[in-house]
Design brief:
Order of helices and strands: HHHHEHEHEHEEHEHEHHEHEHEHEE
Structural class: alpha/beta
CATH topology of the largest domain: Rossmann fold
Strand content: 15-25%
Distance between the termini: 33 Å
Largest sheet: 6 strands, parallel
CATH superfamily of the largest domain: Response regulator
Oligomer: single chain
Number of helices: 14
Strand order of the largest sheet: 2-1-3-4-5-11
Radius of gyration: 24 Å
Length: 355
């Protein structure tokens, strides 16, 4: 299926320019007759057929921009929201997407059903939903969403989605430990477990065992969770990481290496290990999963991380929604972001190349 991006490439112009010309706004915006004809000819040569419903939607009210709703659970990493906004702004400046206005619709994890009126209506040109809760997923599968919808962190047949390869992420951590010749390793869960973190955990365990390592698993500790939940309005993952290490050291010695569910918990783990006289990476190597912020990169105790591809998630979801609104059905329906590692100070880089 020929898309607006194909026409833009053939004509040597931006997708926004193509959209404006094919929607009859070229003269109003004083685009040259030569450019307009070049775009129309490229569209004819490629057999491009505009999506009539999308065109009508974009023209509705004469707004000249897309109204996008972002369904956002506040327990997502705060940096992700900033990344979404910055990415949308950059793509707009580059004319890679149509002009967009973003509205943030907060919902509590597990209660996306409270937004049923919005989901079943037509308040926006399109929606992006950031959700990792099984209850939210089950609800979305049970209703008819009236607007184009892109899900982040899910891979469901009936929806468009942009996801992280969590299976590969878990395997990558195990392969790094194997290449460092470790025999005894541990997985430490965070302050909550989701469908995505469970997949990382199981793939890490299976791969580590397949590679001949002995694996100890420390899932979320309910007593610690109850204690911290009583002290704070929201769960403090850093504090949880410190507490779980204290609890582990009461029962056993630390293994050679630890893979931690998230970056904030991993930072707590590293700080408490140091407080207990256990050095990273000399005594215990630690790998977390999460964001490689500038603060982490420049820190004296920078975490080694399996990277969360936040920028790619934001870019792919915005571009996918833009294309759906313009074109209707698009392929591929599901995009899986790549896996990679950043080697900080808490786990040395193996001599063998890890891909």
């Amino acid at each position: 299926m020929t898309s607006i991006y194909d026409v833009a490439k053939a004509a040597g112009v931006s997708t926004t320019t193509v959209s404006l010309i094919l929607n009859g706004k070229g003269d109003k915006l004083r685009l040259s007759a030569r450019t307009q004809e070049k775009v129309r000819q490229a569209a004819r040569d490629l057999g491009y057929v505009p999506n009539v419903n999308a065109r009508r939607l974009l023209r509705s009210g004469g707004k000249g921009f897309m109204e996008i709703g972002l369904l956002w659970s506040p327990d997502q990493h705060t940096a992700f929201l900033d990344t979404m906004i910055r990415t949308m702004t950059r793509l707009r400046k580059e004319e890679a997407v149509f002009p967009m206005h973003l509205s943030i619709i907060p919902f509590e994890r597990g209660y996306i059903e409270e937004q049923e009126e919005l989901l079943k209506g037509k308040s926006f040109h399109g929606l992006i939903a950031v959700s990792g809760d099984d209850q939210d997923v089950a609800y979305l599968q049970s209703i008819q969403v009236e607007m184009p919808l892109v899900l982040i962190y899910q891979n469901l047949e009936q929806f468009y989605s942009v996801n992280v390869d969590n299976q590969r992420n878990g395997e990558l951590a195990a392969e790094i430990f194997k290449n460092l010749h470790f025999r005894h390793v541990m997985y430490i869960g965070g302050s909550y477990e989701s469908r995505t973190s469970s997949l990382r955990k199981m793939s890490f365990i299976h791969k580590a065992e397949e590679l001949g390592m002995q694996v100890c698993v420390e899932d979320s500790n309910e007593e610690i969770l109850a204690k911290l939940s009583g002290e704070y309005m929201t769960m403090d993952s850093y504090r949880y990481g410190r507490e779980i290490i204290r609890e582990i050291l009461k029962k056993q010695e630390m293994p050679e290496a630890v893979f931690v569910q998230d970056d904030d918990t991993a930072r707590g783990v590293v700080v408490e290990l140091k407080r207990q006289g256990i050095r990273c990476p000399e005594d215990v190597s630690v790998i977390g999963y999460g964001l490689n912020t500038i603060e982490n990169q420049e820190s004296e105790n920078s975490l080694t991380l399996i990277l969360h591809p936040m920028g790619q998630l934001a870019m792919e979801s915005i571009r996918m929604l833009d294309l759906i609104i313009r074109e209707g059905e698009v392929f591929p329906r599901n995009i899986l972001c790549d896996s990679s590692a950043f080697f900080g100070k808490t786990c040395r880089k193996p001599d063998d190349k890890i891909s």
